[in-house]
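dude i think i finally got it to work??
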Amino acid sequence: MNESGDVRKVIFFGDHFWEFYNSQTPKIKERINWTIKLIKTVERVPTKYLKNITGTTLYEMRMISGTNIYRIFCFFDKGKLVVVLNGFQKKTQKTPKNEIKLAEKLQQQYYDEQN
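look at this
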């Protein structure tokens, strides 16, 4: 744990997340902020809020507001570092493949920049 009491550090890669975030209502922003704080501070985050996407190293932060469902892709780097990529409003049962592909592309860009 670091001095702020966080068990993880969360960083934001690129502009995709911020474009998504800035287009949301104050209520949704509050829900997103709450979920990110949970991921930072709770050792074992319930899968209700953070779940691995099968077949990838990506995770999705999961938020619901009324009947609206939101997802934000992220992944772990160097253990306790969470890298946030992109978000979207979910309209179907399954996560759209194009959203996963975008997150994978952003993840690759992140690794390319690290090397």
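The chain has one domain: 9-114.
im so relieved honestly
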